[in-house]
From TrEMBL:
Record protein name field: Glycerol-3-phosphate dehydrogenase [NAD(P)+]
Key word Transmembrane present: no
Binding site for sn-glycerol 3-phosphate: K110, G140, K195, D248, S258, R259, N260
GO BP field: carbohydrate metabolic process; glycerol-3-phosphate biosynthetic process; glycerol-3-phosphate catabolic process; glycerophospholipid metabolic process; phospholipid biosynthetic process
Organism this protein belongs to: Amycolatopsis mongoliensis
GN (gene name): gpsA
Length: 338
């Protein structure tokens, strides 16, 4: 493993993959992106834009792109995985034999895998045959469009191996992007996955015409339920007070730029799951799948996550958002911290 990471490959040219490539490029790294569609790769390579995902954003000249994963991975010192959670296993399996052996693996995805109920670093560890503790997880309040516009933002780089996190911290820190390190991978990954589900709920509340008190209640009680799950899995409770918890909840639950919040808003306004999916234009709203995997994980551990449960019921059992809200309010009364 090299402490001075100069050549980075980003696998996935969606919103966050492209914005994170720009962060690395603006930090002076040589970046090669892999795009699923050659048309997107050509747009980045020839015109220094990704008009499909980040229209109007100029990309630095030290970013190139290809649709050939073998070419993209040649000589990479770090490999950033920037595809949606539920497709990571299939994509990574096809890339596994192309990964340079010493490259640091970096995960951008925020989700929990359906079926296995694994966090992304666990999926990566299993497929590549490495300790999940070697994977660097990027999380925090990082709405891609704002970062691509160069607006100041902080992030968390979580890795059990502090040296790897520091190597990526050095590689991506720039004048508008301030990454912190953290060794609590469990807490950081759960924060990033759970907040997408809570953002669905705040969007839904907004779609129903509800105001700021409801949003604050959902954010705060969402924080309580993600921290309960984290505690059961050995996370540091302080993590949820940081960028990966409160920070990302505030950003995602309140911003119209969030795909999860927007998706929830559409459901709250009475659209069907299919209509909301069509309106997302192929971009991922991770909470729609993660509400089911996180609910299953919580149930397997005996952890109560009522908002996540309600989102699963709305998204996958056809329950009306008003009915789900009424059920949340009708639960038995309890102490705030019980
Ligand atoms: N967009 C954002 O603001 C942020 C996103 N994230 C996370 O980063 C991950 C990637 O998100 P985005 O880049 O925003 O997603 P996106 O939907 O904008 O792009 C996904 C990319 O993955 C590729 N891909 C490869 N295989 C795929 C498959 N089977 N299904 C769908 N897409 C496939 C797509 O072609 C596309 O280039 C997600 O887990 C998301 O939660 C995290 C922080 C910020
Ligand atoms: O993770 C994000 C911000 O930190 C992006 O959220 P959305 O996927 O809801 O757009």
């Amino acid at each position: 493993m090299r402490a001075d990471v100069q050549r980075v490959t980003v696998l996935g040219a969606g919103s966050w993959g492209t914005a994170f490539a720009k962060v690395l490029g603006d930090a002076g790294r040589d970046v090669t992106m892999w795009a699923r569609r050659e048309q997107v790769a050509e747009d980045i390579r020839e015109r220094h834009v990704n008009s499909a995902y980040l229209p109007g954003v100029g990309l630095p000249e030290n970013i190139t792109a290809t649709s050939d994963p073998a070419k993209a991975l040649e000589g990479a010192q770090a490999v950033v995985l920037a595809v949606p959670s539920q497709s990571l296993r299939a994509n990574l399996t096809s890339w596994r034999d192309l990964l340079p052996p010493d490259a640091i693996l970096v995960s951008l995805a925020k989700g929990v895998e359906l079926g296995t109920l694994k966090r992304m670093s666990e999926v990566i560890g299993e497929i590549v045959g490495i300790d999940p503790g070697e994977v660097v997880v990027v999380t925090g309040p990082n709405l891609a469009k704002e970062i691509a516009a160069g607006q100041p933002s902080a992030s968390v780089l979580a890795c059990a191996d502090h040296e790897r996190a520091v190597a990526i911290q050095r590689a991506c820190a720039n004048s508008y992007f301030r990454p912190y390190t953290n060794t609590d991978v469990v807490g950081c990954e759960l924060g990033g996955a759970c907040k997408n589900v809570i953002a669905l709920s705040t969007g839904m509340a907004a779609g129903l015409g509800l105001g700021t008190n409801t949003m604050a209640t959902l954010i705060t009680r969402g924080l309580a339920e993600m921290a309960r799950l984290g505690a059961k899995l050995g996370a540091d409770p302080l993590t949820f007070a940081g960028l990966a918890g409160v920070g990302d909840l505030v950003a995602t639950c309140s911003s119209p730029l969030s795909r999860n919040r927007t998706f929830g808003e559409r459901l709250g306004r009475g659209e069907t799951l299919e209509q909301a999916q069509a309106a997302a234009g192929g971009q991922v709203a991770e909470g729609v799948m993660s509400c089911s995997s996180i609910r299953a994980l919580a149930r397997s551990l005996g952890v109560d996550m009522p908002i996540t449960d309600a989102m699963h019921r709305v998204c996958h059992e056809g329950v009306d958002p008003r009915q789900a809200g009424a059920e949340l309010l009708g639960r038995s009364q309890k102490h705030e911290w019980s």
